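Could you help me review a protein record that somebody else here produced? My question to you is simply how this chain folds and whether the tokens agree. Thanks in advance; the entry in question is below:
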Amino acid sequence: MTNREATVALNMLPKIGPVKVRKLLEMLESPLAILKAPINKLTNAPGVGNETAKIINNWEEHIDLTKELEDAKSRNLTILTEADQDYPKHLRNMYDPPLALYIWGKLSPQDQHAISIVGSRKTSTYGRETARKLSLQLASAGLTIISGMARGIDTYAHEGAVAAKGRTIAVLGSGIGQIYPPENMALAEKIASSHGAIVSEFPINTPPDKKTFPMRNRIVAAWSGATLVVECPKWSGSMITANLATEMGKPIYAVPGPIDRPSAAGCNHLIREGATLVTSAQDILDDLSTLPLIELPQTEPIITPKPDLSSLTDTEQLIYKNLSPEEVTIDQLVTSTSLKIPLLLSGLLTLEMKKLISQLPGPRYKTK
């Protein structure tokens, strides 16, 4: 057995974790030595009681390391430990760096220029569109977008980076064999194939639960140079991520929201407590460029990619050209396009299905 395999084994064991392993490594010379150590020697390490020592000493009764390694190979996963040069440098500086990282896809040196984008699972149209737009612009500027691939803001942050043909890293609160939520499998495949990586510190078939998500949040906070919160209530996992990033000395950015919406209370609270208010991606880039501890890639100013309208019919192009990021009503479109309402509604539906426009209550419409 190699030290890499021993590290993977320790990561798989229950009731161990990175902090206890670090304490053991201060006393023993290697991960392999930990697995071979007698119980009475293991209990000499701070925080390692008799129960933990017995689990380590009898580790083969608790896990199937051979099956885990074969499963990783069959899924084309890379497993990184701190002994590897490619292990993310920001994670090395954590209090409790992950013992192992399962990687589906590829990491890149560019990922040291990263910002995390987080927010609520229950989102408004405003929150979703803002997350996607800011992510697209930040990814276009060369930043890697890190998020947790949860429903809501996380999903739109990843999609924005993919739309920009940029890089994004999804840190899971489950094993890679248990993608959650399951409806994001297609997004995960797209990210892993050409836009970044799906990453987890958990063994492959670990299901998500209330403990795994907070553990995931600490990685999201540590890996990025700054954290942007788009939309969240005052008590949420996104606030946990923001608080962790603050404790790590990372800058926090927040998108303001209506004062009477609980879904905006978290962001408004962060701004009141000192987070930088954000109205555009350029606000973030300008601010980060003044911070000596944050590395920014050398890129051209942000240019939002224009959608390809060549496949649209003449009617669809006419409707689209009479829309803008500002909300427009049906009555205004009837006046500006001179189209009859049935034809106008049909064109609007097609444009919405092609994800070129958004329908808002009213109904009102705007370009994405």
Remarks:
- The mean pLDDT is 90.
- Residues 314-367 form a domain with the Arc Repressor Mutant, subunit A fold (CATH 1.10.10.10).
